[in-house]
Amino acid sequence: MSEHKTYPPAADFVKNAHVDAAKYEEMYAASINDPDTFWKEHGQRVDWIKPFTKIKDIDFTLGNVSIKWFEDGQLNVAANCVDRHLDKRGDQTAIIWEADDPEEPSKHITYRELSEQVNKLSNVYKELGVGRGDRVVLYMPMIPEAAYAMLACARIGAIHSIVFAGFSPEALAARVSGCEAKLIVTADQAPRGGRNTALKSNVDKALEISGDTKVLMVERTGADVDMKDGRDFAYGPLMEKASAECEPEAMNAEDPLFILYTSGSTGAPKGVVHTTGGYLVWAAMTHEITFDYHDGDVYWCTADVGWVTGHSYIVYGPLANGATTLMFEGVPTYPDASRFWQVCEKHKVAQFYTAPTAIRALMGQGNEYVEKCDLSSLKLLGTVGEPINPEAWEWYHNEVGKGKIPIVDTWWQTETGGHLMTPLPGAHALKPGAAMKPFFGVKPAVLDPQSGEEITENPTEGVLVITDSWPGQMRTVWGDHERFEKTYFSDYKGYYFSGDGCRRDADGDYWITGRVDDVINVSGHRMGTAEVESALVAHPKVSEAAVVGYPHNIKGQGIYCYVTLMSGEEPSEELRKELRDWVRKEIGPIASPDLIQWAPGLPKTRSGKIMRRILRKIAENDYGALGDTSTLADPGVVDELIDNRMNRE
Ligand code: WT7
């Protein structure tokens, strides 16, 4: 373990950094000892239409959970991300857009142009009958219109819910009806990696399942699509006619800004709700400080706006700070494995933020792809989404960063709105694989998973909880506050439970060890094993299914399925393929099973509960350490599963 190897910040980086070691200590102490004063000051990072006088009102007690920040203030997120920059930086580039195809010209959209587009689209929304509090689903390629569509919602007080364009019509339909959307914004097609996904026809299929929502369609490729009269509207003509003036709505700090569906350990995905004031303060502050963003820097986060990373660190955080943010439509390996580095060179990227799964995939392609590009503009690298193995960290540091620039390993979740733990690049000596230190105002604690007692000594290991609120925290599950309380506040009373395990080393630094629940992380995409199981059992030939994660070289975790067939059904390679295609259709390609093992029986307790701990061990090829199997109803099934296991690495 390279736990003892540390990388202190370089002196010239520290000199210019927003936060150095002494300042971190001072600000962290202030944020914990006197949060009201601290957040009164940092609440001013955004412009308020009506200033707040209340700072925080928090209750983490089960049955009573309530989270409010800056609650009597009013503001508008689009005004903060666009209007307020016009005087000083109207001609500065807000968004650089890089197409999937490197031959297609990139676009530079200034803050003034952004303002015009957002205002126009706001008026188009209104014309289509969308207003304050209404829900709008976005199902979009990575094009500037996706950012316009988000900001226009914010401007008129509508609540967006983005559905990643890789999700199937079925998954889209569930999310559209889940939030009772009034409008879907989409495109004809989404180019990605040289292939076009038919977004509009997916929307058509989704609406066959779930009703007659209006559709606004951006013409991205000009492909032939069906347009249903009175339901479907083309973006171009409506924008052309629309006025470029739309007053921003004065929103209350606690009005919802967006809903984002994410997977949990049980049941269907839940709609995570983020609100206006606290979220924006958190996104802006973490963007500036974690990435040490300075005026004039070109900043690039490679995520998709379909995930929370795209919300907070492509759109809201950077634009609130008046930054230049790069939006990339494509994938890291198209046309070849040098694409990321070519884009860095082309646009002189200063901060580059990506996922460990991408780093591992590119590392496997060889160094020449990196070495042929000029990466001298880079000042900082970041990672997010899953623990990064030290080998990938070292490669990122040495090959991409030339051993000279810091890496911020940012731990956070859809639920947290923004970074909760990360090294600050001018303050902390880095340790490969460690999320290091809490951000300002974040009070982490490590609990003994059995007793729920807080462990204060170091080193230690346990479950990671947060003891008090931070402004970017999710407020509720859309339409189901009880589920919110049950998911995050019931296992360990009085705390926010992250679902992650962690270590705290002898220096008091944090290392995230991964999920302790039935959530898996496949290529940085979060998935509930329960979702894949319910897709499998919906197939007529499947009687029962259990799904677990297993270690995968590139993806981090792969999807391992144990499937019991209906009696009379014969296992076959064709059936394997059929089930794989079925899950892709039900959820989307990201949920495609990696391994399917035919299981005549599943290990169950006498009360019928599937013992996943055992299935996880077999999938990890670690069946020597199965632990106590004495409570199994039929211990014989375990030997059968071990004999026929799919992963022998
Ligand atoms: C889960 C949240 C946060 C945006 C992307 C994922 C894992 C996230 C790290 C990290 C170790 C990480 C956790 C977390 N995770 N970042 N730096 N080190 N693990 O958001 O889809 O809500 O997933 O991703 O397990 O709980 P998400």
What is the topological layout?
Layout: H1 11-16, H2 21-33, H3 35-42, E1 56-59, E2 66-69, E3 74-75, H4 77-81, H5 86-89, E4 93-98, E5 107-110, H6 111-127, E6 135-139, H7 144-156, E7 159-162, H8 169-178, E8 183-187, E9 190-192, E10 195-197, H9 199-210, E11 214-218, E12 232-234, H10 235-241, E13 251-252, E14 256-262, E15 270-275, H11 277-290, E16 298-301, H12 308-320, E17 324-328, H13 339-347, E18 351-354, H14 356-363, H15 368-371, E19 380-384, H16 390-400, E20 407-410, E21 444-447, E22 454-455, E23 460-466, E24 476-477, H17 481-489, E25 496-504, E26 510-515, E27 519-522, E28 525-528, H18 529-537, E29 542-552, E30 556-565, H19 573-586, E31 595-598, H20 612-619, H21 636-643
Parallel strand pairs: 4-17, 6-7, 6-8, 7-14, 8-11, 11-12, 16-17, 16-18, 18-19, 19-20, 30-31
Antiparallel strand pairs: 1-2, 3-13, 4-5, 9-10, 14-15, 15-24, 21-22, 21-23, 23-25, 25-26, 27-28, 29-30
Helix pairs in contact: 2-3, 6-7, 8-9, 11-12, 14-16
The structure holds 5'-O-[(S)-butoxy(hydroxy)phosphoryl]adenosine (WT7).
- In the CATH hierarchy, the architecture of the largest domain is 3-Layer(aba) Sandwich
Compute the average pLDDT: 96
Distance between the termini: 21 Å
Helix content: 25-40%
Total E-strand runs:
31
Major sheet, described briefly? 8 strands, mixed
List the ligand species.
5'-O-[(S)-butoxy(hydroxy)phosphoryl]adenosine
**CATH fold name of the largest domain:** Rossmann fold
| CATH domain class of the largest domain | Alpha Beta
The radius of gyration is 24 Å
Q: What would you call the quaternary organization?
A: single chain
Question: Which descriptor suits the 3D outline?
Answer: globular
Low-confidence stretches: none
* Sheet with most strands: strand arrangement: 12-11-8-6-7-14-15-24
Number of discrete helical segments: 21
CATH superfamily of the largest domain: ANL, N-terminal domain
Strand content of the residues, in percent?
15-25%
Structural class computed from helices and strand pairing? alpha/beta
Overall tally of domains: 2
